[in-house]
């Protein structure tokens, strides 16, 4: 089916190249993870591509329970500090892009990973994040003087306790002048073991669900079947209490997801986006990661807001509607 759709995909993409260069502060957007491969280019280059609305700097891999916090940005700067990134962060923000620090990730660093020992420990970690990455003060800010827009929770190992307390403590630092944005990247398998309690607080501004490396709730590249993904989106994640902005998290290449879930861009545009865009809390697409995103975001950018193809293919949505 993907081959049959390719001519339509190419024609519409060429017609909409101009719109792909225009980023809107309103409506749906694209989020990306940056920081886990030294060959992915600079943070500033990612932001100047014009393809992203949110960039998650990945990852703060270990913290809590008395550990010395460990920032791991792979080949970009080991060990931290990575203070040279301060000016690049400010460039991204000047372009209207929200830049967040991502906690956790898929593998531990030298420490024990992200482990919160108690509600008090969660408040201590929130204070550390505020003073070292957000709007507070510290003599040893790992990313320099730049003030990040918020914190992303990508907790995939360690303990599942007290992440709701951390969300509440971080949210408490928001003021009328500066909001602390919170995002979460749960696995699509529902409910997420680590983040369910935190997401249910309703404090998260963005939830980008990882619909990959999880066969029960991802697109099948082998069969071309999207039923598992669409069932998970419509029956579990879209109705999730407190999730006001829901993102479709996808791998930007087959190599980005060893356990599957990659969706060819023409299939995403013609079969998946027209369905998920029909839900009121649809807010865009998240991609793992900048390194793997050779052309994926450029291909889907004109369609993420739901303008062009959605309306040329409404019949597709009906044929894939999920009860």
Automatic annotation (TrEMBL):
Disulfide bond listed as a keyword: yes
Gene3D superfamilies (UniProt xref): Glycosidases
InterPro entries: Cts1-like, GH, Glyco_hydro18_cat, Glyco_hydro_18_chit_AS, Glycosyl_Hydrlase18_Chitinase
Secretion signal span: 1-27
PROSITE patterns named among the record's database cross-references: GH18_1 (PS01095), GH18_2 (PS51910)
Domain named GH18: residues: 28-307
Keyword list, A-Z: Carbohydrate metabolism, Chitin degradation, Disulfide bond, Glycosidase, Hydrolase, Polysaccharide degradation, Secreted, Signal
Catalysed conversion reaction: Random endo-hydrolysis of N-acetyl-beta-D-glucosaminide (1->4)-beta-linkages in chitin and chitodextrins
Subcellular location: Secreted
Pfam families (alphabetical): Glyco_hydro_18
Known EC number: 3.2.1.14
Enzyme class: hydrolase
Transmembrane segments: none
SUPFAM superfamilies registered for this protein in UniProt: (Trans)glycosidases
PANTHER family: ACIDIC ENDOCHITINASE, ENDOCHITINASE
Similarity comment: Belongs to the glycosyl hydrolase 18 family. Chitinase class II subfamily.
UniProt protein name: chitinase
Species in which this protein is naturally found: Coffea arabica (Arabian coffee)
């Amino acid at each position: 089916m993907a081959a049959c759709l390719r001519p339509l995909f190419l024609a519409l993409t060429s017609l909409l190249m101009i719109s792909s260069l225009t980023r809107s502060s309103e409506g749906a957007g694209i989020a990306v993870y940056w920081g886990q491969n030294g060959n992915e280019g600079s943070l500033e280059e990612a932001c100047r591509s014009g393809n992203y609305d949110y960039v998650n700097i990945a990852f703060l891999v270990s913290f809590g329970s008395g550990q010395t916090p460990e920032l791991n940005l792979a080949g970009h700067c080991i060990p931290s500090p990575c203070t040279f990134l301060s000016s690049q962060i400010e460039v991204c923000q000047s372009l209207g892009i929200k830049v967040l620090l991502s906690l956790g990730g898929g593998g531990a660093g030298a420490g024990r990973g992200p482990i919160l020992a108690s509600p008090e420990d969660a408040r201590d970690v929130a204070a550390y994040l505020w003073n070292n990455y957000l709007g507070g003060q510290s003599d040893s800010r790992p990313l320099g003087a730049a003030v990040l827009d918020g914190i992303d929770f990508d907790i995939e190992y360690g303990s599942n306790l007290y992440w709701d307390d951390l969300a509440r403590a971080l949210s408490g630092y928001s003021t009328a002048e500066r909001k602390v944005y919170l995002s979460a990247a749960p696995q699509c398998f529902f409910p997420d073991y680590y983040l369910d309690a935190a997401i249910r607080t309703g404090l998260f501004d963005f939830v980008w669900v990882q619909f990959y490396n999880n066969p029960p709730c991802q697109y099948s590249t082998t069969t071309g079947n999207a039923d598992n993904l669409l069932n998970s989106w419509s029956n579990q994640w879209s109705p999730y209490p407190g999730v006001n902005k829901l993102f479709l998290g996808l791998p930007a290449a087959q190599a980005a997801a060893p356990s599957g879930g990659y969706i060819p861009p023409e299939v995403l545009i013609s079969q998946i986006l027209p369905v998920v865009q029909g839900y009121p809390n649809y807010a865009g697409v998240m991609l793992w990661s900048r390194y793997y995103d050779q052309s994926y975001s450029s291909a889907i950018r004109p369609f993420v807001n739901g303008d062009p193809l959605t309306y040329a293919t409404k019949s597709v949505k009906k044929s894939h509607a999920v009860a």
